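User: I'm writing a short report section on ligand binding and want a predicted complex to refer to. Could you take this sequence and S-adenosylmethionine and write out the structure as tokens? A short remark afterwards would be nice.
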Amino acid sequence: MDIHVLTLFPELFPGPLAVSVTGRALKQGLLRLHVRNIRDFAHDRHQVCDDYAYGGGPGMVMKPEPVAEAVEAAKATLGEKADQAPIVLLTPQGRPFTQKVGQELARSPALVLICGHYEGVDERVRERVATDEISIGDYVLTGGELAALVVIDAVARHVPGVLGNEESAATDSFAGGLLQYPQYTRPADYRGWLVPDVLLSGNHAEIARWRRHQSLLRTLLRRPDLLPRAELTKEDLRFLNEHGWAPQGP
Ligand SMILES: C[S@@+](CC[C@H](N)C(=O)[O-])C[C@H]1O[C@@H](n2cnc3c(N)ncnc32)[C@H](O)[C@@H]1O
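Assistant: Sure. The structure tokens for the complex follow:
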């Protein structure tokens, strides 16, 4: 997958992406990161990329020309993939980034991520250049770079080959819409803090049942908002019902 990042601060990349799972994916070429400095597309010799807001108000706004032209340069290198590449503006006003959105983006052969800064980016970029807008949460960051790093990491986990079998995304939290069950490793007894017996039993069916129930209970206790959209079997619904949860009617 080709990921193009457009930023005023290219030195922030690859940053944490250079290590662990994403670092390996970059080395193997499963992910190809192309970072462009938006400043290289400025029109004047001082490479100014921001200006005062029309109508007044605090802070500077990123000018549309360098951003639009950086996107065009990224698309020009994508060839046939250009039409299938979402042009994502990172903004606290975008659609919330979730595991599902990460999965959806991972199906594209390429991604273009626009990192804003200062008071944000001229509205015409959102209207005319971006094809998608993503927020990583209901808080305001100084720039889109940290958001881009989060999005790239989460998307990478869904790119075929990036996770080995031992790190499957299928059992992670949010797969199927639930939080993951609790995990334990050796020792079985640490200071008298014991691993649940069932996990030591070797009974795979019992372990699977226990894990499913733990997933359901955790989600019910911590994130009941996830349950209406989770993939639930009749048995799951029966179990949740016993614990006081029932789906609401339309
Ligand atoms: C200081 S913020 C601008 C916020 C803007 N004034 C507003 O209120 O919507 C600068 C840049 O950081 C990025 N950013 C900030 N918070 C973000 C979030 N929660 N998700 C994604 N990007 C974010 C965006 O690229 C944004 O253009």
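A remark for your report: DSSP finds eight helices and nine strands in the chain. The pocket of S-adenosylmethionine is lined by residues 90-93, 115-117, 119-121, 135-137, 139-144, 147 (CB under 6 Å).
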